[in-house]
Amino acid sequence: MWKPTSLRTMSFPLLGLILMGLTGCSGDHPDTDPLEQVLSSEDPRIRNVMDDPAPYEVQIRYTQIDRKGDSLVFRDFDYQVDKEQYFYPASTVKFPIAVMAIEKLNQLENLNLNTRFYVEGDTLETTFGKEVMKIFAVSDNAASNRLLEFLGQDAINAGFKTKNTGPARFSHRLSV
């Protein structure tokens, strides 16, 4: 229970390697698929997965944002994306939880990002702003779970539905 006070489908190291490789892929070569480029790496951690991808059930969707004058052009690149195959979203669920928590705070007069709170059974007293920051800075599962307690699972699922996220449903806390 939330109380105010004083008014992994892919291993993180592998995901980090892929993301570092993608950030180095610029829009200089418009016909180059950045996923293909990164996933063909000879790095043994990537090679291990790419040589036998089936057990890892890897699905990647990468959106590259290119500037064309004053406009932005979004280009999607996919690896093994299949809408018929269930994909566990792992840490991607943290983003909407953080956004929904900020939206809720904006609707409440007595609470804001600097309000200190703790979750019953937890020893940490923190602020909403610190927990949102930890979600984005270090992908902190405990921070996400604290905001889940503030929002409630039903409210998160209702938020997914009203925001037309497709067939999304939040069903459990993240492990810590």
Please write out the topology:
Layout: E1 2-4, H1 12-23, H2 34-39, H3 44-51, E2 60-68, E3 71-79, H4 94-107, E4 116-119, E5 126-127, H5 128-138, H6 141-151, H7 153-162
Antiparallel strand pairs: 1-4, 2-3, 4-5
Helix pairs in contact: 4-5, 4-6, 5-6
In short:
This protein has 176 residues and is of the alpha+beta class. The chain has seven helices and five strands.
Average predicted confidence as pLDDT: 79
Low-confidence stretches: 1-13
Helix content: 40-55%
Radius of gyration: 19 Å
Structural class: alpha+beta
Count of separate structural domains? 2
Shape: globular
- Terminal CA distance reads 18 Å
Largest sheet: 3 strands, antiparallel
The helix count comes to: 7
Spatial order of strands in the largest sheet: 1-4-5
Strand elements, count: 5
In percent, how much strand structure appears in the residues? 15-25%
Strand and helix order: EHHHEEHEEHHH
Question: What distinguishing features does this structure have?
Answer:
single chain, 176 residues, alpha+beta, three-stranded antiparallel β-sheet, two-stranded antiparallel ribbon, 41% helix, disordered N terminus
